[in-house]
Write a structure and sequence with these properties.
This protein is α/β, with parallel strands linked by helices. Helix content is 38%, strand content 20%. The chain has helices at residues 14-25, 45-55, 69-79, 98-109, 140-147, 173-182, 193-202, 220-223, 231-247, 257-272, 280-286, 305-315, 330-335, 361-374, 391-398; strands at residues 4-10, 32-39, 59-64, 84-87, 93-94, 113-122, 125-129, 136-139, 169-172, 205-217, 297-301, 321-326, 353-356, 381-383. Strands 1, 2, 3, 4, 5, 6, 7, 8, 9 and 10 form a 10-stranded mixed beta sheet that branches.
Length: 414
């Protein structure tokens, strides 16, 4: 029977760790090596790890100074001896037959990677998140035809053709051992993509299944995003993309990786900068939501990461007026003390434009239906308006070479 090495990177997750490790220990597939990597936790996480180690001989504990997620995954993988590797984040958990079902698919099709759906949990509510890829077996020819050309970015701009998360996938250890070790430990943005996309690029067989046996916990404190964004943030983003461009040999790839990476980079920078709304001069340079006149009253729809950045950066721009923040999840946001209102109250709101900071077509359809139901003027909705034909110019304007993502002579905008 094949050995599966389960690697769990942990940093200050003692409130969730018991459920996580218990779900691994209780797997119906018993041939496991369970590697718990404590990355310098300052809570009781290491003590919980030791408790489990004493009760199950399959468990190995690695304790290291805090060095980041990439370092913790490397440490776990270096200790792994299994035929396959499976990552589980320390605040998540898996269903009892998760590894048995993944292994069955890997074994039946000699797969390099098995990819499943997952369930996202937030405040006790569960949503099943499906892969963009259709379930099935993808041999190399089909990988090249149906996955690689849209793996990183696909139309409409911007969405991944393959989700980046590295947990919840079963890998052949021989495939990812070197790839994981190549990822620079300084990579703190797109660290999952830095492993997943090169791994798919090198795979001979990929299996996609629609079973959702992994549970991803959306912690309340991870929902809230910082509004800080300056040249140091763009430098961190660019560092990850420099690695990806090299690992994927994007300059000579026949699968359009160079253009896909441009779209990915532009999307991340646009999200984290809040559409450049903090600084009107920069906004006028990029016009992410089209031209905005001084004194324009702007409402925002979407309380996710992009929406949070837009709303809070908008608050720092004295030339524009915040006219409200709306989302269907307004009740959950109230628990987090976020000033998000019920979308139905938009019927009474006074605004010139309703900004829609999202690349998700489903959210665009939701807003269109809302406008029709409430009798709102849909022409007031402003979606992201990046010219995808000139992404190279967009990235260069931010201060980076569009092919290598190395800094240009001119400094990136703060």
């Amino acid at each position: 029977m094949d050995l599966i090495s389960v690697v769990v990177p942990i940093y200050n997750l003692d409130a969730y760790l018991y459920q996580c490790v218990s779900s691994i220990v209780g797997q119906t597939y018993r041939q496991l090596q369970i590697i718990l990597v404590d990355d310098g936790s300052t809570d009781n996480a290491l003590e919980i790890c030791e408790y489990f180690r004493k009760s199950d001989p399959r468990i190995q504990v690695i304790a290291q100074p805090n060095s980041g997620l990439v370092s913790a995954r490397k440490a776990g993988l270096q200790a792994a001896t299994g035929d396959y590797v499976f990552y589980v984040d320390g605040d998540d958990w898996i269903e009892p037959d998760c590894l048995a079902q993944y292994h069955r698919l890997a074994s039946a099709h000699s797969a390099d990677i098995v990819i499943g759906d997952y369930r996202r949990e937030f405040l006790g509510n569960f949503v099943t998140v499906r892969n963009p890829l259709a379930p099935g077996v993808y041999p190399r020819e089909r990988i090249e035809r149906e996955i690689l050309p849209t793996m990183i970015s696909r139309d409409p701009f911007f969405s991944h053709g393959l989700r980046t998360y590295s947990w919840g996938k079963l890998y052949k250890r021989s495939l990812i051992a070197d790839l994981q070790n190549r990822v620079p430990e300084q990579v703190m943005v797109a660290e999952d993509a830095a492993l997943v996309y090169p791994a798919i690029d090198r795979s001979q067989v990929v299996v996609v299944t629609d079973v959702a046996l992994c549970n991803y916990r959306q912690r309340p404190n991870s929902i809230l995003k910082s509004t800080q964004f300056d040249h140091r943030d763009t430098d961190r983003i660019a560092a990850a993309f420099r690695y990806l461009a090299t690992a994927l040999d994007s300059a000579s790839s026949p699968h359009g990786y160079a253009q896909q990476l441009l779209a990915y980079f532009a999307a991340i920078v646009t999200i984290r900068s809040g559409g450049f709304l903090r600084n009107k001069a920069l906004y006028d340079r990029f016009e992410v939501f089209g031209p905005l006149a001084d004194g324009a009253r702007l409402a925002v729809y979407n309380s996710g990461s992009f929406g949070q950045h837009v709303y809070r950066h908008l608050q720092s721009n004295s030339a524009l007026v915040v006219a409200g923040w709306y989302d269907q999840d307004h009740q959950e946001n109230a628990i987090l003390r976020m000033p998000v209102s019920d979308p139905d109250t938009l019927r009474h709101a006074v605004f010139d434009h309703l900004l829609l900071p999202s690349f998700d077509p489903a959210l665009h359809a939701e807003v269109a239906a809302l406008c029709q139901r409430l009798g709102l003027d849909h022409s007031k909705v402003r979606s992201v308006a990046i010219d995808t034909r000139h992404l190279d110019a967009f990235v260069a304007a931010i201060g980076y070479d569009p092919l290598s993502f190395c800094p240009l002579t001119e400094s990136a905008p703060a």
